[in-house]
Amino acid sequence: MKKKMLSLVLAGAMTAAMLTGCGSSASTGTNDASAETAEDASATEDTAATEESAETTESTESNGATFKIGGIGPLTGGAAVYGIAAMNGSQIAVDEINEAGGINGMTVELNFQDDELDAEKSVNAYNALKDWGAQVLDGCVTSACSIAVSAKTAEDQMFQITPSGSAVECVANDNAFRICFSDPNQGSASAQYIGENGLASKVAVIYDSSDVYSSGIYEKFAAEAANQSIEIVSAGAFTADNKTDFSVQLQQAKDAGAELVFLPIYYTEASLILTQAADMGFDVDFFGCDGLDGILNVENFDTSLAEGVMLLTPFAADATDDLTVQFVTTYKEKYGETPNQFAADGYDTVYTIKAAAEKAGITADMSNEEICAALTAAMTEITVDGLTGEGITWDASGEPTKAPKAVVIKDGVYTAM
Amino acid sequence: MNTAVHFTAASETIVWRIGMSFVAHLINGISLGSVYALIALGYTMVYGIAKMLNFAHGDVIMIGGYVVFVTVSGMGLNPLASIIISMAVCTVLGVTIERVAYRPLRGASPLAVLITAIGVSYFLQNVALLVFGSDTKAFTNVVTLPNLELFDGQLVIKSVTIVTVIVSIIIMVGLSLFVKKTKIGRAMTAVSEDKGAAQLMGINVNGTIAVTFAIGSSLAAVAGVLLCSAYPSLTPYTGSMPGIKAFVAAVFGGIGSIPGAFIGGILLGVIENLSKAYISSQLADAIVFSILIIVLLVKPTGLLGKKIQEKV
After folding, report:
1. For B153, which of A56, A200, A338, B240 is 20 to 30 Å away at the CA?
2. pLDDT higher than threshold 80 for residue A417
3. Does the residue A411 lie in any domain?
4. What is the ipTM of this complex?
């Protein structure tokens, strides 16, 4: 009996040791991450500082009223790339607008706050922006933060437009709109793109049924495929526990005579699928959504396998239209790198706010509630030609309607189609 | 008349195509199963002799994979040399784990040892997470032989599949002979039957168990290389799911039995792949694990397991 007790205690102690073991290693992980972000932070501070000085000079130049746009996104931490890009893109738009005389004669001011990809900090950032006197919100850049803040903006009746929050719930409230496609809407957009461009009529799908992003896109894709006379010849699901062996799904696609395989999944699994398809001699086209963005950076992945892979993305930096060329040139001049889709989303967000504000005739003496009501009404009436799509329109749900754009991987780089 | 001929021709091609895809699924299943078999051999070896479930086995496989990844992709070593390095590293790792974590618990209840094994498994995963990070590494296939193409490329058998099957057969036969014929092997059998009596006969029990772990872990390195070559993705969690499935395979074949582990592994892989193909790709795991339950209910000793009479 005593022995049994002892072994039970031992067992308990070991479980505890095991748990603390996990805990401590996890926290070291975060330390690592914060160390990395420290570097990012110093980089951002520099850019932020230059921007602030730029803003102050502008506001002293024009003595008219100002229109204050608050922005929120991760400027430090793991997703800093997204936040900084959206901030820079927004800033370029603001500068251009001010140069051209502002919105309804008002000078635009942008104050972009860091949320470190943390929903709670995002709400804090929002409160700080309210104190600053923000009249509309450009944010948040990421979905979870956007959802957290949208509860507050709905309460305060502050007009909100997220550049890149793609989760369905981001625009659940009447006052919230978005620039990017929602996650599931990428599915219908993909089906449209494949159908309208005649890429294939027999399509196989391989998706992750344990992931809401992937299965959401698949459902919308399947619904829209019927309208585009696309036949889904096989739909192979996999789950998070089973994501290394795709031989069955690929074999089914091959047997069913698929001309194109649609991959509404993330790039890690996609890289395996490409490798295994090549191994089994299955030569077929692949088409994916924004989750495939990053496939060229998988360590040790033979990127020649990704040649010809198409993916739906709102923005291709090498597109040759005037707007893109001008934006990319300005961005490279100011920030020294090629803008990504988040930069384009940020840019379009500011121009959308401008279009709606002009439509609604916003003036400096209006309260935030009045601005919100006026902009919400105006949003459904405007059409915006932006970097991420031509003739973008919105309905009251907050979802944008625009023609999908796609890029193809050619010679190891994303190329506009 | 003519239509009838056409009809038979058409139906023949359909039958041919269905048959071909069945064979393809079967071969993919054998490919998966031979990896399970290799891992299950390590499980069953340790269980058969030390009478403990080494749940860290799957994670030793993962470490073996990382060693090859680092030496081949990072240092540009010859794949064969890197496999030998990987086997050496895993052998040392296995013996160390046994010495540090399991030997102090030799007299403790099996539950305590089992929980320690789970702890070691988490420990290895987290160490790998710290050292290599969480992003997936694309593994370079070390088997560079050409694939076998049959019927004008309608059926492709990957060379890594052939190599894995051959390697697991060689290892199975080798292990069986080793346990039956060599002095250390017979000492292992003695230890597995009765530790106390074996010690009285002058067998070094701790030494024998350490050798068992050394062999089991070096097999894990081989399994790791072949697993990652067949499914070229390497994360700190690469070993855990195949490890658990291989455990099911070992139980299915009769845990403790070396040929049983091989047969159990192959059968499990085939069952998993065929149920993915013909029943549901999402239910495949559920089917695999319900096999474990059914085996435990109907034939607890597995296909080839021996029924051991408990001494009263």
Report:
1. A200
2. no
3. no
4. 0.72
